[in-house]
Amino acid sequence: DIQMTQSPSSLSASVGDRVTITCRASQSITSYLNWYQQKPGKAPKLLIHAASSLQSGVPSRFSGSGSGTDFTLTISSLQPEDFATYYCQQSYSTALTFGGGTKVEIK
Amino acid sequence: QLQLQESGPGLVKPSETLSLICTVSGGSISSNSYYWGWIRQPPGKGLEWIGSIYYSGSTYYNPSLKSRVTMSVDTPKNQFSLTLSSVTAADTAMYYCARYYHGLEEYYFDSWGQGTLVTVSS
């Protein structure tokens, strides 16, 4: 299986801050990397697919970058509705795997 | 607008079989571009992919669960299902069904059900 490691596991930030979350794959997954946002009690929501493509309807303050084994999700200016848990997921292998999640909390 | 709805028992006894159904509305389960998947999330923990199925019946399962998982599709009813045998407390989780876009060079879960909590307990 391809292991996906996210860091940090949690962070505290203020409204307006720039936030960066990283995801590392245990082997190259080229650009087969997706990012999801999950709020408490809700299903995950797709934010970014193919490492850097913004899903329709997702605010432009969200962006993704990277290829190979190292990827980044950036929120350019954190908004109150962005406090949530974020997961990366690789779709390179038919055995899909998710990262452990990064919880973004209010400072 | 596509909607997915999970249904099934909320309580299953240890060693028994968990069975869930996902009903798809607002779109066809027989679409060429999509697989259909199950993902679970134990309370307070992260996401774990269980498996995916195409309308033709082709399946991919998580290797760690493969011996206990069976997925099937019912195209006339626009439903797909999950069975997980020999459950233990470790199988207690929120179970989500989701649509998996299968494009030329990108694949992702783009639509999710609200989830159903399954507790394994005697």
Describe this structure in words.
The complex is a heterodimer of chains A (107) and B (122). Chain A has 107 residues and is an all-beta fold. Chain A contains no helices and eleven strands. In chain A, strands 2, 4, 5, 6, 9, 10 and 11 form a seven-stranded mixed beta sheet that branches. The N and C termini of chain A lie far apart (36 Å). The radius of gyration of chain B is 14 Å and the shape is globular. In chain B, a hairpin with a 4-residue loop joins strand 7 and strand 8. The mean pLDDT of chain B is 97. In chain B, strands 2, 4, 5, 6, 9, 10 and 11 form a seven-stranded mixed beta sheet that branches. Chain B has a four-stranded antiparallel beta sheet with strand order 1-3-8-7, with no helix packed on it. Chain B is an all-beta fold. Classes of the chains: A mainly beta (107), B mainly beta (122). The interface between A and B is medium-sized, with 26 and 24 residues.
Rounded to an integer in angstroms, the radius of gyration calculated over CA atoms of chain B is 14 Å
Strands of chain A, count:
11
The fraction of residues assigned to DSSP E strands of chain A is: over 45%
* Dominant shape of chain A: globular
Based on secondary structure, the structural category of chain B is mainly beta
Count of extended strands of chain B: 11
- On the 0-100 scale, what is the average pLDDT of chain A? 97
Q: Which protein chains are joined by the largest interface, and how many residues does each one contribute?
A: A-B, 26 and 24 residues
Helix-strand pattern of chain A: EEEEEEEEEEE
What are the defining features of this structure?
heterodimer, A: 107 residues, mainly beta, seven-stranded mixed sheet, four-stranded antiparallel sheet, 11 strands, 0% helix, B: 122 residues
Topology record:
The complex is a heterodimer of chains A (107) and B (122).
Chain A lengths: L3 E4 L2 E4 L5 E7 L7 E6 L6 E5 L3 E2 L7 E6 L2 E6 L9 E6 L6 E2 L3 E5 L1
Parallel strand pairs in A: 2-11
Antiparallel strand pairs in A: 1-3, 3-8, 4-5, 4-9, 5-6, 7-8, 9-10, 9-11
Chain B lengths: L2 E5 L3 E2 L5 E8 L8 E8 L6 E6 L5 E3 L7 E6 L4 E6 L8 E10 L4 E6 L3 E5 L2
Parallel strand pairs in B: 2-11
Antiparallel strand pairs in B: 1-3, 3-8, 4-5, 4-9, 5-6, 7-8, 9-10, 9-11
